[in-house]
Design goal:
The protein contains 12 helices and 3 strands; from the N terminus they run ααααααααααααβββ. It has 338 residues and is mainly alpha-helical. It has 2 domains: 3-292, no CATH class; 299-337, no CATH class. It has a 3-stranded antiparallel β-sheet, with no helix packed on it. The radius of gyration is 23 Å and the shape is globular.
Length: 338
């Protein structure tokens, strides 16, 4: 398997590992073994503890030692990230408890909408026309999934919880963006340990008890796999094929989640689900195309010129591929000795 194919495999594996979290969490909640807020906290604790071990191993062995660590000026964004990561998983698990896991998997795409709109309004980032179209489709699909029925013209409680979780993650993504130049393992470690501890504290305050030891271990293992390893594989893919392509391949995660929900939980959704599924599929295709193209029209330019390096005259044939705001070009050299 070539390097790029391996990277694509890791990106898809990251999506699959994250997606399996929703149906397995649904099964754990329905078994009565663990309550929603406690489940959310333990999942993040598992990711944090697991990534702490990975982080310490890499620092001791000298792997990626050149990566920058968080510092004092990053504190406001780090604190905001942790607080939002306490609220979002708890809301998500209440959503899992109150609606079908297939619905939750698709509604997770609303995080893209929240992240994009916050980046647009607060950080003045540009959004391409194609991305606006994709956002509109995600919103439409979310509305379709949220309605309990045609007779009951109101959002289901579970859908509201999931959408609120996505809103929290949208804000959190923009906070994390401000510290994205720092060590990813350290960020995940801090997210997991502190947000997980906060989630467990919220569970205790709400009167939820600690589950049995086997359940604690199982949930933390799921958290390490679904959050910790998923992010680790995502980073591995990103190093080979870049952030844009990795995020494009990772965008299939909700559809993995739907498949897992059908197989593991045995869900058979209402007809409106399939209408929302089609809208989400179209929006995902649009987002992938927009991501891979850089969100801009490309232009190709060709020209030839010569210049001298020492005793060699180089003829350069240039083929420019310009993606605004980036400019990438390739050229070949033919040299003549004089």
């Amino acid at each position: 398997m070539t390097g790029k194919k391996t990277a694509v495999f890791f990106a898809l594996l990251a999506a699959a590992l994250y997606a399996v979290n929703i149906p397995l969490s649904k099964l754990l909640e329905e078994s009565g073994a663990v309550t929603p807020a406690m489940l959310a906290g333990l999942l993040y604790c598992g990711a944090g503890v697991g990534m702490a071990a990975v982080f310490c191993f890499k620092r001791i062995s000298g792997i990626n030692r050149e990566e920058k660590l968080l510092c004092r000026k990053d504190l406001p964004y780090t604190v905001a990230m942790v607080l939002l990561d306490i609220a979002a998983p708890v809301l998500l698990m209440f959503g899992v408890a109150n609606t079908a896991s297939a619905n939750v998997s698709l509604l997770n795409n609303f995080e893209i909408v929240a992240t994009s709109l916050i980046a647009f309004t607060v950080f003045r980032e540009k959004i391409s026309p194609r991305m606006w179209a994709a956002i509109a489709l995600v919103v439409a699909a979310s509305v379709i999934l949220g309605f309990e029925s045609a007779d009951a013209f109101r959002f289901s409680r579970g859908s509201v919880y999931v959408l609120l979780a996505c809103l929290c993650w949208g804000v959190e993504n923009n906070c994390t963006r401000k510290i994205s130049d720092k060590s990813p393992q350290e960020i995940v470690m801090i997210k997991g340990i502190f947000s997980g501890a906060g989630g467990v504290a919220v569970a205790f305050i709400a009167g939820e008890g600690l589950p049995e030891l086997w359940c604690v271990c199982a949930v933390m293992l799921l958290g390490f796999v679904a959050y910790g390893l998923s992010i680790s594989f995502y980073i591995t893919a990103q190093k080979s094929i870049g952030a844009a392509k990795t995020s494009a391949f990772y965008s299939v995660a909700p559809f993995f989640g739907v498949g897992f929900s059908f197989v593991l939980v045995g869900e058979r959704p209402e007809p409106q689900f399939y209408l929302a599924l089609a809208a989400m599929a179209v929006s995902t295709v649009i987002m992938v195309r927009d991501t891979l193209s850089g969100g801009a029209e490309s232009r190709v330019y060709c020209h030839t010129h010569t210049h001298r390096h020492g005793g060699t005259v180089h003829s350069h044939e240039h083929r420019h591929i310009a993606f605004s705001p980036f400019h990438i070009h390739f050229h070949s050299h033919t040299g003549t000795k004089i």
